Amino acid sequence: MKTEYDFFIIEREHLKGKKNFPFQLYIFNPLHKKFSMFLNGNRPLTKEHLDFLDYLFDKGGRLAILKNQRKTFLVAQEMNASEIPSLKERELHPLEKERLMNIRLKEMHDEKSGAFHFQSQFELACQTDNFEVIIENARLEILTFSVTISPTVSLAIHLAKTHLDKDNFTNRIVAVSYLLAKNCNIVDQDALSDIICGAYLGHLGLTQTPLAIARTPYLSLPEKERTLFQKHTILGHHLIKKSQINISERCKKIILDHHERMSGNGYPSMKYGEQIELLSQIVGAVSHLFEYSSGKITGGKQSMKAILIAMKSKSYMQGLEFDFGEKVFQSIITLINTDKIENKESIDTSLDKNKAA
Ligand SMILES: [Fe+2]
């Protein structure tokens, strides 16, 4: 379908009283905000056509030419582009200029570093405990997002620009959530931005609970404090709503639902199955992986490889959750090639460490 970007507008006097044109004439209907064919090339412009044009201009309609017929129009009408206001170069918004620069930077980065392969980079990042390459790749991609889609996309770009530039716990969750979403075939910038903003804002609610709760491993929290910790989902969602920040409903849902689990064992609403959107499952799963690995759940650190081995074989590890929905689960367990490794030994070691913790 042709859009406004495919046309330039001309005035009636630009027809110069001629009756025949080697280009097509289109009209813009302000009522439907659509362009439609008015007169085919080399067809006579009749009195009926001109009467209709009078009527159309009266209603705010416009005459338009396809941009790919620009040269034909200018030659036939013996005009310069500078005489047609709509053909003058549009001054780009500074954010659009910045985006074009970021697209070029990304191209240069790809030429220098080659294609980015998420799984192999993730495995390397886990081995070296260094996620800089993963985070940088996510940042470079997000900075090429369109600046005119929605406030949530613009917020995702802003957060990537201002925060996604160092290797820390939150940025690991944001970058891996984003790349895992792409692994799950999510390509829409709206949805990817919901993931990015949801991953950044998911734990906003913890600012409303005592610091000691956030610093104590989840499984070590007494029942009352554990319930308080679980409230970070509702509190974060509430804060976002109260702030009236212009952010998508789907992003707010990620903040609220990232601890919901497919079988209904999650919180705060014990949602189950399709009640939990794929985007919330992704942020929930990735947050859980990093929380588990860093010791925020059991108190003991655990290698990502050992976690994924346990997940893949559905072996029991205290506090480890698997229940993220099939698509997300499959994407996660293939993040590291666990087939080639020292299998059983590794699991046993992990479980022993876990018991000790
Ligand atoms: Fe959380």
Describe it.
The protein has 16 helices and four strands. It has a four-stranded antiparallel sheet, covered by helices on one side. It has two domains: 4-87, no CATH class; 94-356, Orthogonal Bundle (Hypothetical protein af1432). It is mainly alpha-helical. The chain is elongated. The structure holds fe (ii) ion. The site of fe (ii) ion has 6 residues, from loops.
How is this structure best summarized?
By secondary structure, the protein is mainly alpha-helical. It has helices spanning 47-58, 70-76, 94-113, 118-128, 132-142, 151-163, 169-183, 189-201, 211-215, 223-230, 232-243, 249-257, 278-294, 304-312, 326-333, 343-356, and strands spanning 7-10, 25-29, 34-39, 62-66. β2 (25-29) and β3 (34-39) form a beta hairpin.
Label this structure with key terms:
357 residues, mainly alpha, Hypothetical protein af1432, 2 domains, 4-stranded antiparallel sheet, 52% helix, 6% strand, elongated, disordered C terminus
